[in-house]
Amino acid sequence: MGYLDYRQKPFDESPSGKGGFYDNLNNVSKETKVEYDFTNEPTLDVPGDWNSQDQRLMFYEGTLWYKKDFVITPKDNKNYMLYFGAVNYECHVYLNGKKLGTHKGGFTPFQFDVSSKLNNGENFVVLMVDNTRKKDEVPTINTDWWNYGGITRDVLLVSTPKEYINDYKVQLAKDNKNVIEGFVKIDGAKDSQEVSVEIPELKIKSVFKTDNDGFVKFNIPTKN
């Protein structure tokens, strides 16, 4: 039954949340019954694919586990994002033994808010990376490009102020080229936070106020 339960329920969905590579255990004695030890395993450069770094992985297609230790003293007035430029193709991300989430897509960046999940001092992040091709996904079984696997772009721990611009857009209005429209989304903003939109080349500077969610849409007439 233990084997069946393991197959039906991944370790990160188990009640204890324990038992996977993401625990970063060390095989210090036979009593621990741990069959892996990241500290004694081969290393790979990140960013980089695994195919070109180790001859044994040239044609490998499947799962590989990564682990990185780091030390940080989080500041109360900062937010922290764990950012990945790209991982090919599917990955599961764990911080200090707890799952942050998953991502699919080998060419798109993604990130996780880890502000409340960092330890003061030693931390470790573990990734399960899988480049297995599937019939109903991209890349599919038959492709005309090399199926690289690995963490192929930068991994960053990004700090921001508590109040920061999460997203924005500025463009000409679709139905009126004499109007500039867009939006700004501020995380951590107070009610009616002022936002300044400035385009020096057009001598435009306008101030708007966000709603309770830190969001504001704007329309600015251009000067002929």
UniProtKB/TrEMBL annotation:
<dbReference type="GO" id="GO:0004565">
    <property type="term" value="F:beta-galactosidase activity"/>
</dbReference>
<feature type="domain" description="Glycosyl hydrolases family 2 sugar binding">
    <location>
        <begin position="56"/>
        <end position="161"/>
    </location>
</feature>
<dbReference type="InterPro" id="IPR008979">
    <property type="entry name" value="Galactose-bd-like_sf"/>
</dbReference>
<dbReference type="Pfam" id="PF02837">
    <property type="entry name" value="Glyco_hydro_2_N"/>
</dbReference>
<protein>
    <submittedName>
        <fullName>Beta-galactosidase</fullName>
        <ecNumber>3.2.1.23</ecNumber>
    </submittedName>
</protein>
<dbReference type="GO" id="GO:0005975">
    <property type="term" value="P:carbohydrate metabolic process"/>
</dbReference>
<keyword id="KW-0378">Hydrolase</keyword>
<keyword id="KW-0326">Glycosidase</keyword>
<dbReference type="InterPro" id="IPR006104">
    <property type="entry name" value="Glyco_hydro_2_N"/>
</dbReference>
<dbReference type="InterPro" id="IPR051913">
    <property type="entry name" value="GH2_Domain-Containing"/>
</dbReference>
<comment type="similarity">
    <text>Belongs to the glycosyl hydrolase 2 family.</text>
</comment>
